[in-house]
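Q: I'm writing up a methods section and want to include an example of the input and output format. Could you take the sequence below and give the corresponding predicted structure tokens, formatted cleanly so I can copy it straight into the document?
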Amino acid sequence: MDQKEVFDKVVAILKPFVKSPEAFAAVAMETSIMRDLKVNSARLVDVVLEIEEEFGIQVKDDEADKVRTVGDAVSMVLSKT
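A: Here is the clean output for your methods example:
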């Protein structure tokens, strides 16, 4: 699976949790999930759980804590698949 495929899937997972449609319309690897997309920390946990399910991976708590941007999530998935 390549970076573009993972990015597209991560973005699709994020979509229902996003509180800032304007920022979501311009989502990129460097987009901050919490600051730009306005996803709160509790919802970010749900996002990580969805990522685990979608990609069939296990994400440790300390790894999940490092996910700040869309790119962080994509890199994490790529490192585990």
